[in-house]
Amino acid sequence: MGAYKQFLASDIVVTPFEVNKAFNFEGAAALTASGVGIDRFLGTNITGTFNPTTAPTTGQISTQYQSLIYNSIQELYYSNYLSSSYGDNVATASLIPGADTAGDRYVGITQTPNYFNYLQTTLSYPKYFPTASDDIIGVISIPSRLFGDYIQPKSFTFTAPSGSLRDDGEGNILDETDDIVGNIFYYHGLITIVSEQAAGYGFVTYGTAIYGGATGDNDSILNYITASNITCSFSSSYKIYETQYKCTMRENEFNFSQNPSLSSGSTLISSSMGTFFTPGQYLTDNVTGSYFSPYVTTVGLYDENQNLLAVGKLSQPLPVSPTTDTTILINLDR
User: Fold this and answer.
1) Which of 15, 75, 150, 202 has the maximum number of C-beta atoms within 10 A of its C-beta?
2) Do 258 and 233 share a structural domain?
3) Residue 241 pLDDT > 80, yes or no?
4) Kindly report the CA angle at 29 between 25 and 32, in degrees rounded to 5?
5) Could you give the C-alpha distances from 285 to 16, 183, 292, 320, in angstroms and in order?
6) Could you give the count of Cα atoms lying within 13 Å of 231 in the half-sphere of its Cβ?
């Protein structure tokens, strides 16, 4: 039998914290295994009228149209970088309202990006996206049940017979020579692999990689997407919440046990809910002295309808102090 005490708002503290888990998958079969579901797609810039009966498809697990993969990635992540590798800007201004519409004034012309495009860094990294006819891109899709809230920056690596890829922690995918060959979108679990076909300076950052030259080709993209001898590693991040309940017993509370064995003449009662003892009229001699103090062994958490929701077991019985407050802390993670 127990006794109840209602929590106050000050007795409950909710604390968020992040947990991480590392994953490593070796071989194409490991990526497509049940419960993993890491898919790889090939996107192709196919011009002309879309015909679902003849359009090429892609996907190791699910089947998608190559043209739709290409168009979706372009629209979601690169639409602001098609004419400028650092993002197109548009002139905007602040509105100072007047007494009426005629009195409105615009001041402070500012250049800002047209689209958000999921920028993940304050550094000015350029983005490249191939737009020529029949250009291809590679896409690696990690399901949210694996990466949680997001992929931990600087934790992604991918190896294939054609080379290896890794992220730089700022949303870029680098090859083994530190050239930028794509992007990673940590909060979406998506990795894109693109190919720089034009000559010139490329789009790497001066001082961090070879300044100039190409950064990939179609054969390497195909190899990353279709090869079976691959390895994929990353760490997930997930926010969980720990709720701490402070169970405080004042010096004048819970100072006597409700255990029926402490009274003489206890009565056994059986019902559909089980067998119970009801306390007798007289206490036994060993609990009538002033030195007696009950021990706490279990704390139960109940809802407002007195339904038991959680049980906390102490490692050893804890005596209730008759002179000071006794506090038991219960932590629940969810």
Assistant:
1) 202
2) no
3) yes
4) 85
5) 50, 78, 11, 20
6) 9
Select from 240, 259, 283 the last residue of a domain.
Answer: 240
Q: Encoding tokens for residue 67?
A: 């043209």
Tell me, yes or no, whether 3 lies in a domain: no
Q: pLDDT tens digits, residue range 252-276?
A: 888 766 666 666 666 666 766 666 6
Could you tell me the sign of the dihedral formed by the alpha carbons of 140, 144, 149, 151, in that order? negative
Q: Are 218 and 250 members of one domain? A: no
Closest C-alpha among 160, 141, 159 to residue 60: 141
pTM of the model: 0.69
Q: Are 185 and 268 in contact (CB under 8 A)?
A: no
The per-residue pLDDT for range 172-222, each reduced to its tens digit, is 999 998 989 999 999 999 999 986 533 333 444 334 443 333 334 678 899
pLDDT for 57: 96
| C-alpha span between 24 and 123 (Å, rounded) | 29
Residue with tokens 């961090």: 208
